[in-house]
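Support reply, case 0932

Customer input (verbatim):
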Amino acid sequence: MECARYGHEIIALANLCPVDPDQDELDSFMYQTVGHQVLRAYSDCMGLPLVQRATSGKAKTQSLTYSQTDEDEVEHLHELLKEVKERYPDVQAVSSGAILSTYQRNRVENVCSRLNLTSLAYLWQRDQKELLKEMVDSEIHAILIKVAAFGLSPKKHLGKPISELYSEFCQLNSSCHLNICGEGGEYESMTLDCPLFSRKIIIDESRIITVSDDEFAPVAHLKITGFHTEPKHGHSVQQWISDSLYPTPPSPTPDEPHLALPIRMSNPYIRHRTESDLKISESGYFYIRGTSPLSNETFSIEDKVDEVMTYIWNRMAKSELHPSDLIMVCIYVRKMENFLRINQRYKTFFGIGPPARACVGIPMEEDVVFEMMGFKSPGNSSEISKNYLHVQSISKWSAACIGPYAQCHVVDDILYVAGQIGLIPAVMKLPSNLSQECQFILKNTDAIMKVMNSAMRNIFHCTVYVVNLKDVEFLRNFVRSEISGECLLKFVQVGELPRGARVEFQVESLLDDAMDKYGRVETETEDLTNDLIYKMETMVIGPKSIRIASIASRSNENVALSNVIVDDVHERIGKSLSGCWNQGLMCRSYYNIGSLDTKEFEQLEKWEIPITYVGLHGQGDQRI
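Our regenerated output:
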């Protein structure tokens, strides 16, 4: 029903059932099979073809993630959907009803990815109480056909409609934590009528099959042995769809004209490769500074991505690092129109659990630059936890990551969230104006953080990439009003953002459990030296981490560029690090093109930290 509301055309139905038609329950980790005998009536009720295949219902691998495994029940889904695609070539997406099960969602996404299908999961992460109430209010007539939980009785509950059981489910949720929508396997249901049916199903005969008569949590299901369908007079499915369509988001309004960012010659050190390009800290973090292809201009963009990614992979292998150790990648592209081609080749280098990612368009000479950060537990240590979230399904929850990047990674107590643009999750389109983009960035980021046990108030570092400098004041006020705690905030003007977005946020935060363990101390200083204004902001996260932002600006437009600017910045950062430069992991230098000369780049290269250079234009009086 949600698919129809969002304007999708339902083409076919697909179902996996037991090999033995008389068998009801397979106890599958993936599929409901109780009541499968009635499924053929769905084709009649919806006027759609039904494609069915048999499954053993056995999982060969039970890990949370999934990769192709022979004879696993997931491969039966692959064969089923492959057949659907062959019979109905117009099929582009698959809808599933996953609400909380990452195990099931990951497997559906795996199959969809292999078949070049989009996974739709509009119920994902919905509040179960609200969702079941919405189902009842939408006139879905569904009955319980299996019970397997404390508080549910076969004789009392089997065959009863969810509309009559809703209040009781809410009470059981309060008293014994029953999942209101049965997401813990507490019960299974079957829809006999809904607004998408032109006919309704009537059960004529059924009996209760007891699997376990456990005193506290009996397991039983309803075996339906007779049923028929009846027409629904006066009901028009097409009229219901027309009346229920969600409003189409308006197209983004054209942005105000702003200064075009011309392509300028870049820093030669972007292409300079040395052993110091990669640094590994004692704690296990590592950093690979921004690296661009060495291949010449006659090579395709795909060949250039291959060259630079192969170099990085080989460089990591020399240090016994693996792609799965990466947690965050920043991709700088010269022309955003090439990003689809870059992305298609980039994704071939990753498997399960890709790093989070931010992507921006920079007016540089290179086609693409990759900057990477990762973590590998030092030695045999297993004390530091590492986790990630990669949801590829389109849902109402947050923007999908359809491709080779995760929503976020967690290392120990720190959450690294991928760069977020203001996509409307259910349709993956941008809203009409900057304010709405910001609201959806906030919504999507908050949804990700809640799943990972963090919150907006825990953010301590936020980078805002903005296309138009005129938007900075609005964005500064917006961020400060939404992030209540101490946060190191910086703005960077870029040439382009994915999908034509006006703004992109990339944040780091502490997990909720770490808020009491690690205090946050933010300091800010400003001084005038050599006719340049130096502003320093430092964020210290207990003994865990330190973030420093240093900005050097001209005091007025008549001031000449200083030859000692790099030395001045180096001295100030060194003081913030208490002189411990060797403890620094990474440095990203945003510099105003034309503000630094060859001598100063040579000075930067002498720093004890690998530096990624990001040449910008139009940053006002800011130099570096």
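We compared this against your earlier run and they match. Two observations from our side: Residues 301-318 form the longest helix (18 residues). Residues 257-265 have pLDDT under 50 and may be disordered. Please reopen the case if you see a mismatch on your end.
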